[in-house]
From TrEMBL:
Name used for this protein in its record: Histidine phosphatase family protein
Pfam families the record matches: His_Phos_1
Organism name: Streptomyces osmaniensis
SMART domains cross-referenced by the UniProt entry: PGAM
Lineage: superkingdom: Bacteria
Gene3D superfamilies named in the record: Phosphoglycerate mutase-like
């Protein structure tokens, strides 16, 4: 299966650089609406047969133009929602709270899945819920599926599950609003990332979260 992980369009709390992860969350800014409207053209070369979105409003609004263009319904699943910030909810992402959030997310991707977000979920719980939606999509028989999800969740899941993406690569490569990670594979055979925001994936091979880019991305 070809799996397209799409980050939602810009939100007001993205602009304010806040850790905003609770359901239902805000809608899109005017720029976010334009980004969503541009998705059908940006993905015109993809034979998308199913579209999923999380339970947060911003992913459903982002998915809507693509779904309308393809004549598909948006399948809403809680499992691909953003990593819940817990006690860090609505704190500034450019403070220590934001650094703790991203360090925790990438520690999960590196294998420390028992670690828990302060007041939130563990890595094992976050990966399990995301895995379940990916498995459902794979079991649908669709050849290409788009999952409209969230920045930290996409980077965490891809670094944990794609054989050719390490934590250093995911940490060093933020995913802009409506950025797309393209993967190929299956839950049984594993996943390989083909592209990340339009660029061919070439992992750095370094260990641990890499550089300030980890701190610059927002949910």
């Amino acid at each position: 299966m070809r799996l397209l992980l799409v980050r939602h369009g810009q939100t007001p709390t993205n602009v304010d650089y806040l850790l905003d992860t609770a359901v239902p969350g805000p809608g899109l800014t005017e720029l976010g609406e334009r980004q969503a409207a541009a998705l059908p053209a940006a993905l015109s070369g993809e034979d998308i047969e199913a579209i999923y979105a999380s339970t947060l409003v911003r992913t459903q609004l982002t998915a809507a133009p693509l779904a309308a263009a393809r004549g598909l319904d948006v399948i809403v699943r809680a499992g691909i929602r953003e990593v819940f910030a817990g006690d860090l909810e609505m704190l500034p992402g450019d403070t220590e709270a934001g650094h703790v959030y991203m360090r925790t997310v990438f520690a999960w991707a590196a294998g420390d899945t028992e670690l828990r977000m302060p007041g939130g979920e563990s890595g094992a719980e976050a990966l399990a819920r995301y895995d379940a939606v990916v498995a459902e999509a794979a079991g649908s028989g669709a050849g290409t599926v788009a999952l409209v999800s969230h920045g930290a969740a996409i980077r965490m899941w891809t670094a944990a599950r794609a054989a050719n993406v390490d934590v250093a690569f995911a940490g060093a490569h933020p995913l802009d609003n409506t950025g797309v990670v393209v993967l190929e594979g299956s839950p049984e055979d594993g996943w390989k990332a083909l592209s990340w925001a339009g660029a061919v994936v070439a992992p750095t091979g370094e260990s641990g979260p890499a550089g300030q880019a980890v701190e610059e991305d927002l949910p």
